Amino acid sequence: MRRPRDARDLKEQNLVARSKAGERYVEKIETKGDLMVALVYPNGYELAASNLGFNLVWKYLNQLERVRCERFFFDESFERFYSIDSLTPIDQFAIWAFSFHFENDIVNIMKLLLRKSVPLRNVDRSQSHPIILFGGALCYTELPLLNVLADVILHGDIESMLPQLNEVLHPTGRSELLRAFAGLPFASVPILGKKCESVSHCADLDFFVPVSPLICRLGEFAHKLLVEIERGCIHRCAYCMMGKLKKPARFLSLERIASVSQKHDSVGLIASNVTDYPWLDELIDLLEESKVSVSVSSLRMDRLSERFLRFLRKHQKSFTVALESPSERIRAIMKKDLTEEQVEKAFQLAKKAGFEEIKVYFMFGFEEESEQDLMAIGDMAKHLLELGFKTVKLSINPLVPKRGTEFEKRAMQDEKILRQKMKIISSSLPVRAKVHFESLRHSRIQFFINSMDEDIAEELLMKVQQADSPERVINDVARAV
Predict the structure, then answer these.
(1) Residue limits of the Radical SAM core domain (predicted)?
(2) Where are the domains of the chain?
């Protein structure tokens, strides 16, 4: 750790140190290797702490013979960027590996690179620059922007990459490392013209047991051990990458979950849909016997049971579901196969189980939807209040067609049209409903990142390189194309 240079430097170090102070290690992670890898979550610490994939990659990379991997997060005030694990500045690391899960985080990645004087385009970097590597959920498919920005892209599940990564990750020169990465079937190295040959796939979760190596006091799953019980998804919703790119769905066995739950009193279950778990009743038995406190994220409405919801109510005050549309006709277009009867049954079961707070996700921005379909969101909110829910929260988001989904060839609706639709929805909503509309600007950036080709990516990065605000340039270019 270096001594702070000034008050601003000290403030940055203190913020990072306070984040680490709230962590409790479940496994001992040794950072002893001589190839320095900075694992960067390109957003705030609370989001990094809640991302099981980020923490698993940190654990796995430090199991490699020659690698010393330390974690970093982004904050708007940062200039030096110190690691969570030792307060080492990021400049001392040979590889900067970005955990890339959300398109809007590209703005923070650009800001970090600009502040550290690293050229945004891979062709402009020299031997003195770190290798800029990308992995994560958005790397299961090919994004043309990354072919211009990244030196290396790793596609797929890290677990099955580890033996080959162990062979190539040794301290050596930048060019030698790039050539070594180019020899891996799951890697793209754009500067060398190397494309991904096959996406890495972890077939057996039981072999690795995806459990977080630490527990954090901050984030969505504060004070809980994160356990991934499902990877992939058995459903094929037309707007979602999960079911198409991470198939087939794989599940952690009851025996493995038991070995974890017996050692901890609070767990967060990570899955695309917890209710898809094949042995759900047995899982409830296990968790009840272990007296473990449990949290889950969003649930699928057609697979809920009275028993599961009563169990969940003992641990959570709020019930969250992704309905997406109150119209069965629009849900059919999305391939979100939920009938009106299934939706109503789910709401009734949740109320019967004792939930007084409910959160529902909706989506709009389809060419096929009518004004009546939009107004039905408000009708649904009124119905939930009439059922007796004291708090009704709605998260309403425009459709963002993405690569790797059935909707990838669709265009995002024009901002003017979307604003008109938002007004229609807003006019239908009851006063008591708590409503959040996703920013249209942020949604437009998501779509732009997903849909641009390499020529536009080149133009974008050259303009951002000369600008003081990456976000403004991205917005301007997105509006122009």
Answers:
(1) 219-441
(2) 7-192, 203-297, 306-438
